[in-house]
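Ticket #4471: structure export looks truncated?
Reporter: QA, pipeline team
Priority: medium

Steps to reproduce: submit the single chain below to the structure queue and open the exported record.
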Amino acid sequence: MNSEVNIGFLIYPNVTPLDAIGPAQMLSAVPNSRVHMIWKDLRPIPTDIGITLNPTTTLSECPDLDVLCVPGGFGQKALMDDQVVLDFLKRQGEQAQYVTSVCSGSLLLGAAGLLNGYQSACHWALIDELRSFGAEPVSSRVVRDRNRLSGGGVTAGVDFGLTLVAELVGEEFAKLVQLSTEYDPEPPFDAGSPSKAPPELVEKVQRRFAEMWGSS
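Actual output as written to the record:
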């Protein structure tokens, strides 16, 4: 790719940092790429684990993006009727080459009208919410429907990021990025999805999400 590739992540109070940083790490390897962290102002953003992320540009000053990505987090619910944010997503989504999300970020894309008629992933505990926006929920680590790419919950953002690297510059380059980052997961437990975890563990996570979702 010869021209600059503008890749933008919407960040916001109580965003899940790995939702943004995981794919950003992968996508930053794309030749001539420029990664933007975007919010209403440039003050540090508190995340849902207590650390902060620093925006690099504002909603009003952000350039036209080739890749728009919305990460998830419990702060996402507070933005579902934030017209400034939704207008930004709609404007960028209408011209971006790829409109993407990780985890519950897909719900924000839905609220902006960008997933009507599209398949999408989401965190498994929230995935059914996609139907209210005319989207078709798909339980998968990465889902592609035309120029919409979405990752499932949190760690799926790394898989999503590598998938998008392959879309942008080819599979061989994506493999180079995978090896360079030593992405060769061997989780210590086989409880990473509701289809594998014990039912009582699934119920605990569902209750936790219901409590946090209701309080955000």
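Status: closed, not a bug. The export was complete when the record was re-opened. Leaving a note from the reviewer for reference: The chain has a mean pLDDT of 96.
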